[in-house]
Design a protein that fits this description.
Layout: H1 4-15, H2 28-40, H3 44-54, H4 62-65, H5 68-75, H6 77-83, E1 89-90, H7 100-103, H8 110-122, H9 128-145, E2 151-152, E3 163-167, E4 180-181, E5 184-188, H10 189-202, H11 212-221, H12 235-248, E6 257-258, H13 260-289
Parallel strand pairs: 1-2, 3-6
Antiparallel strand pairs: 3-5, 4-5
Helix pairs in contact: 2-9, 2-11, 2-13, 3-13, 5-6, 8-9, 9-13, 10-13
Length: 296
């Protein structure tokens, strides 16, 4: 029978959920792996264009800018608010068929945002600053579209309203530490997919030695490449895949108390989605940036 301190910790962790902010995306590690893996597989013309566009960035790599769209929360709150709906798409009829007029009005979802930012990136008459931002948005949004909880047909805001008590040795990110009590994290299913599934083996920090960005990217790059026979080029199809995976792979647990058993079981799928996102991002950038600039 659980001890009274353990029962108290569990209750406290669950109660803390009410104050936890909604997760927005793959964790920093997941997004950076998408960027790092994609950059390894760009064609030379696209690679040169990426270097040109990202010149002057603190970390001028796809991995280095992969979290920029989420970082706007702290660096440009108004812009983050204006783009917050562009990180996901939810259907409202219980199916995985996205109706753009209903589920993505005015292009304000991850599908519409990818199309919009790709058009900006492809237009070489645009200012380089606009194209740079478009590239940074694309790296992030392609990753988002492959996170299953970002394209969902459940009425719980992509798992944000599905409460979870998770026993884990991985401490949360700084904003959520108040919800971590006696090794139990009060969180939600979205955050489990966002941070903990990949983070349990990938996060490398004091007290939690992990693979780190390079080590984890090397591991995923060691599998046969590309991860599929033909890259799907339609972001609407990517979102549909994510949505269908939610039920086909039973990503929703039967209960609300989880441990590393769930994380270990779901990690191969999460890693596959990172690899698919990286492959498709590389192909998208090859197709968008890989041809010479048009002659006047």
């Amino acid at each position: 029978m659980p001890t009274m301190p353990r029962l108290f910790a569990l209750s406290a962790a669950l109660a803390a959920l009410l104050a936890a902010p909604a997760a927005q995306a793959w964790s920093a590690l997941g997004h950076r792996m998408v960027g790092a893996l994609a950059e390894r597989h760009l064609n030379p013309e696209a690679e040169a264009q990426v270097k040109l566009l990202l010149a002057g960035e603190p970390d001028p790599t796809l991995a280095g800018v992969a979290t920029w769209a989420d970082d706007l929360r702290n660096t440009d709150a108004d812009r983050f608010k204006a783009t917050s709906r562009q990180h996901y798409v939810n259907t409202t009829d219980g199916t995985c068929h996205v109706v753009m007029e209903r589920d993505c009005p005015d292009g304000q979802c991850v599908i519409g945002a990818i199309d919009t930012q790709r058009a900006i990136l492809a237009d070489r008459t645009r200012p380089i600053a606009a194209r740079r931002d478009a590239l940074k948005f694309l790296v992030h949004y392609v990753g988002d579209a492959h996170q299953p909880m970002h394209a969902n047909n459940h009425p719980d805001k992509g798992g944000n309203d599905y409460q979870i008590s998770l026993r884990t040795k991985l401490e949360p990110e700084a904003y959520a530490k108040k919800n971590y009590v006696d090794g139990v994290m009060g969180t939600n299913l979205h955050s489990v997919w966002d941070y903990y599934i990949l983070g349990e083996v990938g996060v490398d920090k004091p007290g939690h030695p992990g693979l780190g960005l390079k080590g984890y990217t090397d591991k995923l790059d060691a599998f046969p490449w590309p991860p599929e026979s033909g890259a799907v080029s339609d972001p609407k199809a990517w979102a549909g895949e994510s949505c269908r995976l939610v039920d086909a792979r039973s990503l929703y647990p039967e209960g609300h108390v989880l441990d590393r058993t769930y994380l270990d079981a779901m990690r191969p799928l999460a890693e596959q989605r990172v690899r698919q996102a990286a492959w498709r991002l590389a192909k998208l950038l090859d197709d968008t940036l890989g041809s010479p600039a048009p002659q006047p």
